[in-house]
Amino acid sequence: MSQSPSPVEIRHWLTGHIAALLEVAAQDIDPDMPLDALGVTSMEEVIITADLESRYGVTLPLADMRRHPSIEALAAHLTTTDPSVPPSLPPMETTRMFDRLVAMMFEIGIDTSHISPQTTFRQLDMDSLSLTELVVMATEETYAGADSMTLDTTLAEAAEQLTHAAQPQQA
């Protein structure tokens, strides 16, 4: 059964799952309220994304969770696909690397509230010095070189490059 879940199914599951995590009744969860206003912590966000992947095979980067901050918005996001648009970050390793890049950019003071995998470093108003700082941080964290990143590299491309560079090379 490879049929995608409906928005209603995702909404129902998320409501019950979040209620269980927060130890409240499901009827006390407002699906239109932002998750952080409901009391969902960043650790619980990680649990939710892992459980979504496990249950539905859906990869949800934390950045997407923050761009769609309510149960209603998440359900709509997770069940809306445009077949003409290729998936932004299909491999789980690349998705994790994207999330790591977003976290590193946040650490150096870059506004990460409105990014997508197709956002370039230039669109984030980064200059070559801040990109160099990000590359150094990424290299230290992943032990992988990221020499080919430019201001016009998208975040998805950067995550893919870092993921590929961090993988052990086959002899």
Fold and architecture overview:
This protein has helices at residues 7-22, 35-38, 42-56, 62-67, 71-79, 92-107, 128-142, 155-166. The protein is mainly α and 171 residues long. Helix 1 (7-22) crosses helix 5 (71-79) and helix 6 (92-107) packs across helix 8 (155-166). The longest helix is centred in the first third of the chain and has 16 residues, at 7-22. It is elongated, with a radius of gyration of 17 Å. Mean pLDDT is 79; it is low at 82-90.
Topology:
Elements: H1 7-22, H2 35-38, H3 42-56, H4 62-67, H5 71-79, H6 92-107, H7 128-142, H8 155-166
Jot down its keywords.
171 residues; mainly alpha; single chain
Number of helices: 8
Q: How much of the residues is beta strand, in percent? A: under 5%
The helix content, as a percent range, equals 40-55%
Overall 3D shape:
elongated
Order of helices and strands: HHHHHHHH
In short:
With 171 residues, this protein is an all-alpha fold.
